[in-house]
Amino acid sequence: MKISIIGTGYVGLVSGTCLAEFGMNVTCIDNDREKIQNLNNGIIPIYEPGLEDLVKKNINEKRIKFVTNLSDGIKNSEAIFIAVGTPSRIKDGHADLSYVFKVAEEIAECLKDYAVVVNKSTVPVGTGRKVFDIIKKKNKDLEFDVASNPEFLREGSAINDFMRPDRVVIGCESNRAKKILSEIYRPLYLLETPILFAKRETAELIKYAANSFLATKITFINEISDLCEKVGANVSDVSIGIGLDGRIGKKFLHPGPGYGGSCFPKDTLALVKTAHDYKSQLGIVEHVVKSNDLRKKNNINLIKRACFNQIKGKKITILGLTFKPNTDDMRDSPSLILIPKLLDEGCHICAYDPEGLESAKKIFNDNRISWFTETYSAMVDSDILVILTEWNQFRALDFKKVKSLLKTPILVDFRNIYDPKEMREKGFNYFSIGRPKELFL
Ligand code: UGA
């Protein structure tokens, strides 16, 4: 089957590559010439484990190609996926749908035969209907359907998430479209992946509800971790204790410096806006948005506590700048709030991140930050070591070496990757989240 994907961002590129791997004949379309040229040469614009090899393999086996011309690209496609960005509009937090609508116009102008147009971009409820109306208005006689097929992959494990999803959600009511989409996802039947067919509006809402629920779960455990610090309880045990209840589940109960990335912050905000538009109550998600923003602003307090409020002039090493490991994505990362605050307090920052360094340098562009390309050299003569993102290589540090390099053995661990008792035995003044020090004395 021939399918095309418009937009080669995270979702478009991973979906296109994985569908090619499933045996489809895929054309990826993007108006960024340089990106398309690079992709045709196997050069990937993002860091995602395994993606580069899979793109190269499918180019060699001629199942995927990358083009800039939409009209040529969608020719003879039975399914056309829209996977362009839907960033938050700066003025009001609504999802900016201008790219989606522009693509719908272009599809309407060049589509000649039946195809199902599939929204994979995260779009607010009702967008599928608008896309349908745009195409219908421009191309009255065309036979087509518009479906919603939200994507649930995570950065850093995107390929596995696409190839082995918990479920596939398809929003459409036309049998013709259902048949094509069932055919596309047929390889997943072997894995007995549940495929949920629903109304288009329902599918659109499932995506926002899923992301907002996960963001709520994280915010809940973050707030519980604050309470743990006050009452002398251990949040790690609380997570296990509640997570073992099958109705709650143990995933997404790790406290940290606040969620970031290109999805949770944008999608929670957009869902709140949709609720406002429809005069519906969504106080929980509204609170989640505020609580997470505040958490990121307050992260500095833990570092202040670690240096007895004598923060001015301190040299601070930060390990991990991206919003999570296994990505080079800096969008809405807690580091974007924490580092400027530390600089304002007169600190000097020594920073290292395995993949995010280049984009971080461009974003901060500040000579009060020294950049390092390796973990240990970033620690020399620092007053405090901070772990902000839990990259694997920070999980088993050589603490003898760390101690010999730091000026003072202070470790602030925003991801709770170390054991407080062990760290104390190694001679560190160790600070983590929701695990008060006195519990481990
Ligand atoms: C998220 C969803 O998990 C995907 O299902 C969805 O497809 C994607 O958004 C999207 O809408 O495109 P992603 O943003 O890649 O995926 O990353 P997550 O692994 O969900 O992590 C998001 C944030 O939550 C990170 O900042 C992470 O550090 C934080 N987090 C996650 C916690 O603080 N605690 C946890 O227990 C889990």
Task: Characterise the protein shown here.
The protein has helices at about 10-20, 35-40, 50-60, 70-75, 100-110, 125-140, 160-165, 175-185, 200-230, 235-245, 265-275, 285-305, 335-345, 355-365, 400-405, 420-425, and strands at about 1-5, 25-30, 65, 80, 115-120, 145-150, 170, 195-200, 315-320, 350, 370, 385, 410-415, 430. It is of the alpha/beta class and about 450 residues long. The chain has a six-stranded parallel β-sheet, with helices on both faces. Helix 1 (about 10-20) packs across helix 3, helix 5 (about 100-110) packs parallel to helix 6 and helix 11 (about 265-275) packs antiparallel against helix 12. The chain is elongated and about 75 Å long. The N and C termini lie far apart (about 65 Å). The mean pLDDT is about 95. It binds uridine-5'-diphosphate-glucuronic acid (UGA). Uridine-5'-diphosphate-glucuronic acid (UGA) binds next to helix 9.
Outline the fold blueprint.
Elements: E1 2-6, H1 10-21, E2 25-29, H2 33-40, H3 51-60, E3 64-67, H4 70-74, E4 79-82, H5 98-110, E5 115-119, H6 127-138, E6 144-148, H7 158-163, E7 168-171, H8 175-184, E8 195-198, H9 200-231, H10 235-243, H11 264-277, H12 283-306, E9 315-319, H13 335-344, E10 348-352, H14 357-364, E11 369-371, E12 384-387, H15 399-405, E13 410-413, H16 420-425, E14 429-431
Parallel strand pairs: 1-2, 1-4, 2-3, 4-5, 5-6, 7-8, 9-10, 9-12, 10-11, 12-13, 13-14
This protein binds uridine-5'-diphosphate-glucuronic acid.
